[in-house]
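QUALITY CONTROL LOG
STEP: pairwise intake check
CHECKER ROLE: data steward
CRITERIA: each record must contain a sequence immediately followed by its structure tokens, with no blank fields

ENTRY 1 OF 2
RESULT FIELD BELOW
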Amino acid sequence: MGRGRAKAKQTKVARQLKYTNHSIDYDRLREELGADAHSEEIYPPTASEQESERAQ
């Protein structure tokens, strides 16, 4: 008993999260996470690419 208000609050919050428009600043997010724009960090070199670099 007494769960009605808590459930209603959870439902209200869930609907707000689902239906509100979230404007995300991806550049700021990258800065906060410390991500760099270099593709090397996003896609690390494969083993075959590393071997070819060592051969040179």
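ENTRY 2 OF 2
RESULT FIELD BELOW
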Amino acid sequence: MTQTRYDQGMATRRSVLGDAHVNRAEANKTEFDEPFQNLITEAAWGHVWSRPQISKRERSMITLALLAALGQWDEVAMHVRASKNTGASPEDIREAMLHVAIYAGVPAANHANKIIKETLAQMEESNA
């Protein structure tokens, strides 16, 4: 593990997902999944999400589209919650889901939209 890449990854992960989420993940880490957690922190967050070529907003939209296309529903909800930190608006997310409908299929986009609406409503309630 490259410590610099890991440290950058942890900083990016916290900036996108929030301290509360990362703290929970770290508290729940076990000997079994520690290598996996280190891998995603270093590779996904320290390398891909930390690259300067596109914004976190754009990465958020791409990520949501890919997760919806792949049917990764728990991850869709997590990244919708993260959108408050990335700058991806509900309108941005809607546009990404229109792409999902055309390029990955209406059923995937339809189910993702259900999860997105529920998650956005929960986020709205928690801010009220």
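INTAKE CHECK: passed for both entries
DESCRIPTIVE NOTE, ENTRY 2: The chain has a mean pLDDT of 96.
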